[in-house]
Amino acid sequence: MGVSPSGALYAFFIQPLTSLYGWAELGVKATPLVLIGIALSIGFRAGVWNIGAEGQLTLGAICGGGVALLFYEVDSVFVLPLMIIAGMLGGMFWAAIPAFLRVRFNANEILTSLMLTYVATLLLSLLVHGPWRDPDGFNFPESRIFSDSATLPTILQGTRLHLGALFALGGVLLTWVLMARTIIGFQVGVIGQAPAAGKYAGFSINQIIWFTLLLGGAFAGLSGLIEVAGPIGQLLPSISPGYGFTAIIVAFVGRLHPVGVLFAGLLLALSYLGGETAQITMNLPLAVTGVFQGLLLFFLLACDVLIGYRLQIKQTKTTATQGVSS
Amino acid sequence: MNEIIIAAVLTIITAATPLLYAALGEMITEKSGILNLGVEGMILLGAVCGFATVHFTGSGTLAVFAGLLAGMALSSVFAVLTLWFQASQVASGLALTIFGIGLSALLGKDLVGIAYEGLPKLFILGITDIPLIGPLLFSHDILVYGSFVLPLAVAWFLKYSRAGLILRAVGDSHDAAHAIGFSVLRIRLMAILFGGAMSGLAGAYLSLAYSPLWIENMSAGRGWIALALVVFATWRPGRVFLGAYLFGGITILQLHAQALGIGVPSQVMSMLPYLATIAVLVLISRDRNKIKLNAPACIGKPFHPTS
């Protein structure tokens, strides 16, 4: 690539965090990652593979943004809560489709939820190219810029850090309580680790599928709404740089635990931010972010073997013997 | 009229070819008991490596091999993770896709906007001139001809060859295969590499023949459609062929609807392949027994020779 490695590493990991603005941006980027990541981690624990969070995020943005455009002239404190509810319902609706198809027709939720992601992206493109295009926007495929009452207030003066970040923290707390203190959280864990035992105990697998997918859809839809009502402020043909997919990595890096997901979300938000800094200062392509994220997950998966197994040194050769967790 | 039919069938063939390669490769991988969700990533890496090779060397043959090797190389990462490190196949496959999308975009950043005339068409003297059949079946590039032969070869391999029998044994009961003395991990490694190679070919076809250029994310979900095709085909090569051509037929609707003046927005037409994938998946999966009887019994289950 023709740039010095140390300089690139500095631009990627350190430079974004040298200013208050950088930290605030980190929060902005971490918000959707954490929100989706925690919801996905619950699904992954139960063995429900919701890969279509990106599509649910898009639908949340469409529904929430639709409300914002509908009440464009209305200046009321109720617009924003209504948008939030609409966004969550939109995401839940999009997640309900794979849930229904899985429960009723046994269709693989990985493939159906992913296919719906492409459909959602095309739907958004259709809307901003057509009926929702800004009438004064010189034919650019963009919606109107949302009015003030439809925009999330910033919580840190002079930055883009907005109210959504608090939602993410609340989400972490909520899911932690859910997983550690409620029956359904316990059922999720049992069904993921021992489906037979769960069945014997009378837990309904179908109920868990519905629960985890709807939860994922709600959180993804919420973060989609947060994106359009926060940092973006309008509907564009593309509203997410792959947050829904990166959240899968966030869930794994966070070891499927709400608190872990919080830190993993910050780490991967840094990878987005670092990618942008490296693009501006060193002219590296943004795709560096994706490569870094993929490598991170590779190494994490490979490291699991060192956690589950113990290395034993035997005279001259090294062999792996089975450890506790396998 | 003849010309319209020929153009339509040619569109179907070109749209079906990449799906056919990727789905047949994945089918062999799944037959060995491994679910590799990284098809999309391997296709993209194959596409960018194929295109880069033809751009720098000018040789289409080398480019096809580069695509094949690139897919294979990426699948070897998956093999190390799932076979050696016993990592979750679903998670590793997703990682492969995310990594492949990123890496292909990084490698291809200087290739965007460059055009290539496309793989040379191989005409067979005499036969190509036969009306109707000639242009339909004998006016293609090497990868399309290959896609005609591959389903037959895979079907023969699985049904009649000893190696195919061993492969199915490993996929249906790895413990039994291990007990007889077959090396489960080595056979699965081969199956994964074959799947990667075919995905790489699918990618090479996309960037060298289907639309001879490189764009980020140009596979547009074909890897996932290929995965769905394997389920749709209930793990049978003949039905993979059928399914791929069915999807080719849907793509043609997308391309020709506007030419015919149907007033549907292009985005709605672009949704069709994805909606069709969901529809066929639902149709085939609703019969649980059918899936159970046809799916390799050990699919997705890790195997460790010492346990």
Which helices and strands occur, and which strands form pairs?
The complex is a heterodimer of chains A (326) and B (307).
Chain A: H1 5-14, H2 20-45, H3 53-70, H4 79-105, H5 109-129, H6 164-181, H7 183-193, H8 195-200, H9 205-232, H10 243-253, H11 258-282, H12 288-308, E1 309-314, E2 317-322
Antiparallel strand pairs in A: 1-2
Helix pairs in contact in A: 1-11, 2-6, 2-7, 2-9, 2-10, 2-11, 3-4, 3-5, 3-9, 3-10, 4-5, 4-9, 6-7, 6-11, 10-11, 10-12, 11-12
Chain B: H1 2-31, H2 39-57, H3 60-84, H4 89-107, H5 133-137, H6 142-160, H7 162-172, H8 174-180, H9 184-210, H10 222-232, H11 237-259, H12 266-285, H13 288-294
Roughly what is the average pLDDT of chain B, rounded to an integer? 83
CATH architecture of chain A: Orthogonal Bundle
Per the CATH scheme, the topology name of chain B is: ABC transporter involved in vitamin B12 uptake, BtuC
Q: Could you tell me the number of beta strands of chain A? A: 2
Helix-strand pattern of chain A, N to C?
HHHHHHHHHHHHEE
Largest interface, and how many residues on either side?
A: A-B, 47 and 50 residues
Q: Strand-residue fraction of chain A?
A: under 5%
Summed up, the domain count of chain B is: 1
Oligomer: heterodimer
- The parts of chain B where pLDDT drops under 50 for at least 5 residues are none
| Sheet/helix structural class of chain A | mainly alpha
